[in-house]
Amino acid sequence: MDGTVTAVSRDAAHMFSKPTQDSIRLLAGLGVEGDAHLGVTVKHRSRVARDPSQPNLRQVHLIHAELHDALQAAGFDVAAGQMGENITTRGLDLLGLPTGARLHLGDTAVVEITGLRNPCAQLDHFRPGLMAAVLGRDADGRLILKAGVMGVVLAGGDVRPGDPIRITLPPEPHTPLERV
């Protein structure tokens, strides 16, 4: 169940896409150094407008490169960082992880998964039709959110493309991911 970091991204401005970097530094309890979403409390503008004192459960955004592959096969021009993620992974079923799963990235960094990214209309502003492409339905008609997962930084460290990712699962029973 181990995977690999394929790209890392950050942006100090509240832009939709984030430029890829050679490395990023994760700061415990805060997020990605130099990123607009760094902080103990929420930084996403819509959430700040509702309640700026909410804890920031969205310090780090991760997307699986396999989603990019599927979107490209469907005709969307999408690459790492362009959907706002900080870390792009390969070889992990991010969407299948339970709440509280811990991703050990590189030598020291640890991110605890808090939930699913709630896709927004900005996806369609970036690429028309992208919002619908990252949503689906399971056999029972339940909505599937495919736009990645969110997490908080438990232990800091530098993360680079090529770094291994090791998963530690929380004790059972596992709680499925929900939107955060």
Label this structure with key terms:
globular; 13 strands; catalytic activity; MoCF_Sase_C; Pyrv_Knase-like_insert_dom_sf; 3-stranded antiparallel beta sheet; MOSC_domain
Could you walk me through the main structural features you see in this protein, from its secondary elements to its overall organization?
With 180 residues, this protein is of the alpha+beta class. It has 4 helices and 13 strands. It has helices at 45-50, 65-73, 122-126, 130-133; strands spanning 3-9, 20-21, 24-27, 31-32, 60-64, 87-90, 102-105, 109-116, 135-137, 143-145, 149-155, 157-159, 164-168. This is MOSC domain-containing protein. Residues 19-168 form the MOSC domain.
Oligomer: single chain
**So what's the CATH class?**
Mainly Beta
| Category from helices, strands and their pairing | alpha+beta
CATH architecture call: Beta Barrel
Q: Strand tally, please? A: 13
Rg computed from alpha carbons, rounded to a whole number of angstroms:
15 Å
Q: Which stretches are poorly predicted, pLDDT < 50 over at least 5 residues?
A: none
How is the main sheet built? Answer: 7 strands, mixed, barrel
CATH topology, by name, is: M1 Pyruvate Kinase, Domain 3
